[in-house]
Amino acid sequence: MKRIFLEKITDELTISGDDANHLARSLRARRGDKITAVDPTGNCAVIELVDFDRETIKAKRIGAIQKVLVEKKIILADCLPKQNRFDNIIEKATELGVEKIEPLISERTIARPNVSSDKKIERWQKIAKEASEQCARDTIPEIGAIRKLDDWLKDIPSLDDTLFLFCWENERETTVREVLSANIDKNIIVLIGPEGGFSEREVKSIKDAGGISVTLGERVLKTDTAAISVLAMINYESM
Fold first, then answer.
1. How far, CA to CA in Å, does 163 sit from each of 38, 167, 212, 238?
2. What is the pTM of this model?
């Protein structure tokens, strides 16, 4: 069933702006279609589209409001790649169930956007929302502020119930499967480095913060390929 995220679910709804455009153009919705609506508090309900005009879509709630299922919490922290490849990371990470995406700047990060780039964060959040609707997720991943890796490491959550993995090309033995099998019930933080990899100082800082280095195989993967690969492995091992 098609899915849309709304600020509030009521008995009678008027959908406008980007949401109406997404329904009409991207999802090709029509009068009489039944859609799953999800709000920011974790409520969902089936609604029926009853009328279209040039600017808005009228709908009514036809199903009971229910709470969405809570998934395992996965945070992806990714050092920003060059060009617009982070857009693709956000889209695919959303499809693979990530709850939050942290854009980071490390010593060897080539892309250096303004740390307070609100417009960039807003655009990334829109990509996450559209990807969530496309893949029928119950939640939209949160896009964090652009931060320096060192600052982010100081603020990572308590690791009592969280597994902190970082993909490192110099790790040769510890696999994702091995670590996950010993920590099956824990939430997960995944850290991906930049095109040039982490510096020796950064690797030490990451390990001091509780990070466990894992290998993704013999090949050195691009940062966006690495992110998608490790998330796919986590999804497979969690099934």
1. 29, 13, 8, 14
2. 0.84
User: Rounded to whole angstroms, how far apart are CA atoms 103 and 78?
Assistant: 5
Domain range for 233 is 74-238
Lowest-confidence pick of 74-78, 169-173, 180-184: 180-184
Domain boundary among 36, 67, 98: 67
CA torsion sign, 65 to 69 to 70 to 75?
negative
H or E segment and range at residue 61: strand 56-61
Burial of 186 (0-12, 13-18, 19+ CB in 10 A): middle
The strand pairing partners of 37, in sequence order, are: 4, 45
Distance CA 100, CA 193 (A): 17
Section 188-208 average pLDDT: 95
Based on the fold, state whether residues 136 and 225 are members of the same structural domain. Answer: yes
Residue with tokens 């069933």: 1
